[in-house]
Amino acid sequence: MRPGDADERRAAILAWMIVLQALCALFFIGDVLADLRAGNDDTGTHLWLEGSVALVLCIGLGVLMYELRQLLMRMERVTTTLRAARGEMAEVIEGFFADWGLTPAERDVALMILKGLDNDSIATVRGRAAGTVRAQSAAIYAKAGVDGRTQFLSLFMEELLADPD
């Protein structure tokens, strides 16, 4: 399940509740108006009850619309923040690669390592021999000052999770 799925489902449920509640409110308002036009004498309590229900439904509609608006704004903020984080992480990665002096081929391999591909998969994607990818990986680790893939990945995880201050 993606992180935003629960919020999207919640927004859809709120939207359907708004539609259903609006239809109910319209029914009760229409019924009150029809009873007023008919002029029935015995409808005082009945009209008051239906009018109260319609009022409560309209207030509920307002609350639901407010909640839906807040949820949609929150979803937009989260999406914007994630996009910014991805962009900043890309800049951080490029900064590390530039500091280490990685060649274009090493940059490609390093990105694929960060994406979780193993050496054989990287070799297949790049159309190179697995030995070439292992040699490039070793050069990347040496330039980064780490002993292997796990430490290499942890450099970026630490940067991602680091306190901005």
Helix and strand arrangement:
Layout: H1 5-38, H2 44-100, H3 104-114, H4 119-126, H5 130-144, H6 149-161
Walk me through the structure.
With 165 residues, this protein is mostly helical. The chain folds into 2 domains: 1-82; 101-165, Orthogonal Bundle (Arc Repressor Mutant, subunit A), CATH 1.10.10. It is 84% helix and 0% strand. It has 6 helices and no strands. The model has no long low-confidence stretch (mean pLDDT 86). The chain crosses the membrane at residues 12-34, 46-66. Keywords: Membrane, Transmembrane, Transmembrane helix.
Question: What labels would you give this structure?
Answer:
165 residues; mainly alpha; Arc Repressor Mutant, subunit A; 2 domains; 6 helices; 84% helix; 0% strand; Tscrpt_reg_LuxR_C; Helix-turn-helix transcriptional regulator; transmembrane helix
